[in-house]
Amino acid sequence: MRAVVQRVNGASVVVDGETVGEITGEGLCVLVGVRHDDTAEQAAQLARKLWGLRVLTGEKSCSDVDAPLLVISQFTLYGDTRKGRRPSWLAAAPGSVAEPLVDEVCARLRELGATVAEGRFGADMKVSLLNDGPFTVLVEV
């Protein structure tokens, strides 16, 4: 699994004019990509990593300051652009594999005590955020 993690001061996801997920204040916007062979244990590992990642102001984590996370599935994180002009999506898991694992990340975060907002799997989402820093890191498990 791969996640692009952005420290934000607010973020939201809109689908067909409706806000389906939103966080306010300091938190993390997390784009999650899933491969064919990723597992529920990797989803749990990613959740633990996100909850404890010390990237907020003062080197704090979401768990330290009870900061919210907005989690959005994004298969394009496994796009391969090494050949030609069109990305290949072969490494990205199909929805039947990816959706339950992204759901597992969110469920495990909630079990840890996190406030989690979500995008809508497979939808044409409009994501808005205020990147704080800017600060963006790649996390792989």
Which features characterize this protein?
5 strands, 3 helices, 5-stranded mixed beta sheet, 38% strand, alpha/beta
- Biggest pleated-sheet summary: 5 strands, mixed
Corresponding CATH architecture: 3-Layer(bba) Sandwich
The CATH topology name reads: D-tyrosyl-trna(Tyr) Deacylase, Chain: A
Distance between the termini: 6 Å
**Which residue ranges are poorly predicted, with pLDDT under 50 across at least 5 consecutive positions?**
none
Number of domains: 1
Q: Please state the average pLDDT score.
A: 97
Strand content: 35-45%
**How many H/I helical runs?**
3
As an assembly, this protein is single chain
- Tell me the strand order in the biggest sheet: 4-3-2-1-5
Order of helices and strands: EEHHEHEE
Number of strands: 5
- Give me the secondary-structure category: alpha/beta
Form type: globular
Provide the CATH top-level class: Alpha Beta
Short description:
This protein has 141 residues and is of the alpha/beta class. The protein is built from 3 helices and 5 strands, in the order E-E-H-H-E-H-E-E.
How would you describe this structure to a colleague?
- The protein has 141 residues and is α/β, with parallel strands linked by helices.
- The protein has a single domain (2-140), classed as D-tyrosyl-tRNA(Tyr) deacylase (D-tyrosyl-trna(Tyr) Deacylase, Chain: A).
- 25% of the residues lie in helices and 38% in strands.
- Strands 4-3-2-1-5 form a 5-stranded mixed sheet.
- Helix 1 packs across helix 3.
- It is globular, with a radius of gyration of 15 Å.
